[in-house]
Design goal:
Helix 6 crosses helix 8. The strands form 2 sheets. A 9-stranded mixed β-sheet has the order 14-13-12-11-7-10-9-8-15. Helix content is 34%, strand content 24%. The chain folds into 2 domains: 134 residues, NAD(P)-binding Rossmann-like Domain (Rossmann fold); 178 residues, Dihydrodipicolinate Reductase, domain 2. By secondary structure, it is of the alpha/beta class. The chain contains 10 helices and 15 strands. The chain is globular and about 60 Å long. The chain binds NADPH dihydro-nicotinamide-adenine-dinucleotide phosphate.
């Protein structure tokens, strides 16, 4: 905590694209938080990244960063293989942690993150941005209110083209946790957990390489998730599709909710209700930046006023589904989700 400003000090662990393009502003636009430090594993990059993004301190030694008393919260956006060890070290140092998804590369590590945060009495959140969207919150509310009756089927359209600037480790480094399933399917799982308030029991999936993924890394996947209350959800996730819109459709016994352009990082898109041949546009209320909404809730949780909008436990759940999808795609078999 900075004694002069009384703001929570955030550190960006990982000199990443997402930290500079989305999270820096989301943290600094809050009245009660400020990015005070940035970390890269390389000293020169740490300096350059901090300078370019007007961040006061640059670190290349995580231990030194974690010893800094002005840092209250660590936001982790390194490659996926590093999230768990950096989160656990941060929690042990008494820092609150907002980790990028997937929380880890395996469930044991993800669970250890949650347990360690609990032991140290620090907040752990998962940066599942989509549930922060006004559109997704509206879909959850309407579904819970029973507007569509019992949800029977869901269709998720989350196939995009991976921007050239991000065409690196996701496509060629299995050891860093690359592949579309850990990148995008993990978001679908969280989105559907959130909207349906239900858990996936088992999955079936087929993945392929369509020109971008290398080695064992898939760049496109389609599949089916089955939920405890009986809903069937189909999903299409890809890095290879240039001209498709994104969306989520929820079809219930009484009506359907159709969300178009809503599987995105921006507060955009539209929801309509379809019933008896009539289509009605739904007002989703005030649009707020998804990442700002997440940080606002995270800061409140640090002040012991509520929980992160996506908790560590939510991150474990979405990872469990993504790992089951990957196993199903690899084995060609239906896989039960191990939470
Ligand atoms: P980047 O590829 O931009 O950064 C990941 C790591 O790669 C950095 O920590 C950095 O290591 C290294 N790196 C980045 N750029 C360079 C460079 N020019 N030269 C050398 N090293 C470099 O990752 P993303 O921002 O795309 O993703 C980071 C994490 O965030 C992932 O876990 C991803 O899943 C998640 N993510 C989440 C999103 C969301 O909306 N929730 C959206 C996008 C990503 P070092 O820090 O050591 O310098």
């Amino acid at each position: 905590m900075n004694n002069a400003t009384n703001k929570l000090g955030w550190a960006l662990v990982g000199a990443s694209d997402i930290a500079k393009t989305r999270m820096l502003e989301a943290i600094n636009c809050q009245p009660d938080s400020q990015v005070v430090a940035a970390f890269s594993s390389k000293p020169d990059r740490a300096q350059q990244y901090a300078q370019e993004n007007q961040v006061e301190k640059a670190y290349h030694d995580l231990g030194e960063l974690l010893a800094d008393p002005e840092i209250d919260v660590v936001y982790i956006s390194t490659t996926n293989d590093l999230h768990a060890s950096q989160a656990i070290a941060s929690a042990k140092a008494g820092k609150h942690v907002l980790s990028e998804k997937p929380l880890a590369l395996n469930l044991a590590d993800a669970r250890e993150m949650v347990e360690q945060a609990g032991r140290q009495n620090v907040v752990l959140g998962t940066n599942h941005h989509l549930r922060n969207a006004a559109t997704h919150r509206t879909l959850r509310r309407l579904t819970k209110e029973g507007v569509i009756g019992q949800p029977l089927a869901v269709r998720v359209f989350h196939a995009v083209y991976l921007p050239p600037r991000l065409q690196g480790w996701r496509l060629n480094q299995a050891e860093s946790g690359g592949g579309v399933i850990l990148d995008i399917t993990v978001h679908d799982a969280d989105t559907l957990h959130f909207i349906l308030d239900d858990n996936v029991t088992d999955v079936m999936a087929r993945s392929v390489q369509q020109g971008l993924g290398t080695g064992q890394l898939e760049d496109a996947v389609m599949g089916v998730m089955h939920f405890q209350k009986g809903t069937l959800a189909m999903f299409h996730d890809a890095f290879t599709i240039k001209h498709a819109d994104t969306g989520v459709e929820i079809h219930g016994t009484e009506a359907s909710l159709i969300g178009r352009g809503i599987m995105t990082q921006d507060p955009i898109g539209q929801i309509v209700l379809q019933k008896d041949g009539k289509t009605t546009e739904i007002d989703v209320g005030q649009a707020e930046d998804l990442y700002a909404h997440a940080v606002r809730h995270f800061n409140d949780a640090v002040h012991r006023k509520g929980k992160p909008f996506a908790t560590g436990e939510d991150g474990v759940r979405s990872l469990a589904v993504a790992l089951a999808v990957r196993e199903s795609a690899n084995s060609g078999k239906r896989v039960a989700v191990q939470y």
